[in-house]
Fold this protein.
Amino acid sequence: MNALRSLLVCVLLLAACATPPREAAAPPPVLILVSIDGFRTDYIDRGLTPTLSSLAEGGVRADAMRPSFPSVTFPNHYTLVTGLRPDRHGIVNNTMVDPTRPDAVFKLSDRVEATNPFWWEGAAPLWVTAEAKGVRTATMFWPGSEVAIRGVRPRDWLPFNQAMPSQARVDQVLAWMERPAQERPRFVTLYFDIVDTQGHVFGPDSAEVNAALGEVDAAMASLVAGLKARGVAADLVVVSDHGMAAVGPERSIDLDALVAPDAITVPWMAGYLLGVTPVAGREAAVEAALLGRRGPMECWRKRELPERFAFGASPRIPPIVCLPDTGWTIVSAARPSRYASKGAHGYDPQHPDMGAVFVANGPSFRAGARVPPFDNVHVYPLLTHILGVAPEPNDGDLAVLKPALRP
């Protein structure tokens, strides 16, 4: 009996040795969210972006993605990573004043104030939620990513440096991809600003914008090739925050001709969007001068803005908001702008010139899919679904983009 037992043990041991070891499970795809600031929906059809066109043809492309109102950079970048409209997440413009801190002004040129968590903590961006769930994140620039929001930053991040070339930004992302799988970020953002910059200075139909499109596309080609060379599977989601419209001095609205300059303070004066606070005691006169349709511009009390803008409740919005027709700008000799511009945004998000791009490609996405126009709040639930992270409360709906996903 003992001999039989010994023989059985030997047989089992030999069988165990003969069984090949299980292969380690492949790490999940990295999710890379790429923003090309100011990339209008139709730019991809100019024949200047073969890499993006290839990603779209082999993956998913939207007919258009509508920005949230106002169609400017910081509000929409924060919407993309929170799923909340600007009225709810609190970044309501590129320049803001909050009534609880009336002496402080949030503006992009003031790095100290723009990175104060006070302005950002109305919402948790995706990297904050992901890090709390143990998902490692990294940002190669993104509005808000330099800020300790609710005490959390991405595991890897860089302070914004506009002078950093597009290729150098890709090189940094690829350097992160060279880490061992357990140390590699699972969610990454990558931001390019040159298309927006050239669009403002030279206009959306300029040779300079076309050159910028080529530069960013070459950087994207390097990213795709670099990921492949490193054997890194990745889901790429390429978006923009808004489009761009041609503007010029022949289409300008003289604010001083409508309302006395000393009757108002102007927290927002960016040409494309006006926010006005009447001086105390002059409210009725200012409203009589501005409210309603004024040629190529319309003004509303903040609470009476069109419902489709989903905008007007935040205390950071001035009492009166004026929006020019697309392509028109507001000027004031009493408040002259330092910038000459041939391109602008911030207009009605439903205007085609404000349309943003959406392209997605990777293991999680269908090949050759096309989705109808949608609002950019729906990107956030898509991202959280791919990451397997429970979303924070948001204004999006996964069902809108679920047809883009593989079954």
Q: What stands out?
A: Confidence is low (pLDDT under 50) at residues 1-22.
